[in-house]
Every structure is written in structure tokens, then in C-alpha cells.
Design a protein that fits this description.
Layout (H helix, E strand, L loop, with lengths): L3 H20 L10 H17 L5 E6 L4 E6 L7 H14 L4 H10 L15 E6 L2 E9 L3 H14 L5
Antiparallel strand pairs: 1-2, 1-4, 3-4
Helix pairs in contact: 2-5
């Protein structure tokens, strides 16, 4: 016959082991902080100001949800949604928006992708091979938008 203290010890041991086995099924995931997002924006603004460009800059998390946004003085109101859309597209489709813009030239059906802006200027934020968000810029040419986005990533130490 098993004594009651022995049963209590077995139950206690099982209680410690069960959480360990359930954690093995979870993935470790990096998350973009507001501090990092704002550092990217600061770097992007430095690049834009150095070139006398007024732009809108958006940072989204990995799900495409807005985390931080900056509209520079004189930036186009119409570029607000473009910047946010480029960031969202880059994050949820896991690639620079330039790739989608180029693909649409030979595969026009790409323009039907839901919730996407196929204009260069959206760049994913990658940490240890994981996409944690994206930066999107709007307001100048698409190439200049991407240049600004990449400068922001370099400033934050997140360039690939």
C-alpha cells in the first residue's frame, strides 16, 4: 500500500514536469519594441532631412499593426496611407515591397493580393532570421522611400 506522503510527492513531481513538456511545444519569438521602432524612425528622418525630403514613416509589428508613425513637416497627406500600407505589406508578405512591385510586371494578378501596396518603399525588419515587423516610407520616389527605410534600419542596427 502506498502511503499518502508518497502520493503527494508524486503529484508534486508531476505538477513540475507537466509545464516543462508543454513549453517544449512553444516557439521563441522576438517582438519589436516601441523603442526600436522609434530608433528606426529617427534614422529614417536623418536620411530624409539630409536630402531635403519630407516623408511619412510607418513602423508595423509582424502582424502589420501600426506601432509607430511620423509625418515630417511638409510631407504629403496622401503618402500617409501609402507608408502604412507599404510597411503592412512588407510585414505580412515577408518581403520588401519592391519584390512585389517587380513581380506584378510579369504577373499582373499580384495586384489582387489582399491588403497590399505593391510600391517600393516597404522593408521587413529581420532579427535572427525572424521578421518582427517592417518599415514603410512614402512621399518621394519609390527608390528614395526605400533608401530612407534602409537608412532607418541601419541607424537602429537592424540592417540585413
Amino acid at each position: 500500500m502506498v502511503k499518502l506522503p508518497t502520493l503527494r510527492m508524486l503529484a508534486l513531481a508531476a505538477g513540475f514536469l507537466l509545464p516543462l513538456s508543454s513549453h517544449a511545444q512553444l516557439l521563441d519569438k522576438k517582438t519589436l519594441s516601441l523603442e526600436a521602432a522609434n530608433k528606426i524612425i529617427a534614422g529614417a528622418m536623418i536620411e530624409a532631412k539630409a536630402n531635403n525630403w519630407a516623408v511619412d514613416i510607418a513602423i508595423v509589428d509582424e502582424g502589420g499593426h501600426l506601432l509607430s508613425f511620423q509625418r515630417m513637416d511638409g510631407a504629403s497627406i496622401g503618402a500617409i496611407e501609402a507608408a502604412i500600407g507599404k510597411a503592412r505589406t512588407s510585414s505580412i508578405y515577408r518581403r520588401p515591397t519592391k519584390v512585389l512591385e517587380e513581380a506584378a510586371k510579369t504577373r499582373p494578378a499580384i495586384v489582387t493580393l489582399p491588403n497590399s501596396v505593391q510600391l517600393q518603399g516597404g522593408v521587413p525588419i529581420v532579427v535572427n532570421g525572424q521578421i518582427v515587423g517592417a518599415v514603410g516610407v512614402g512621399g518621394v520616389t519609390s527608390q528614395q522611400d526605400e533608401q530612407i527605410a534602409e537608412a532607418g534600419l541601419r541607424h537602429a542596427g537592424l540592417a540585413q
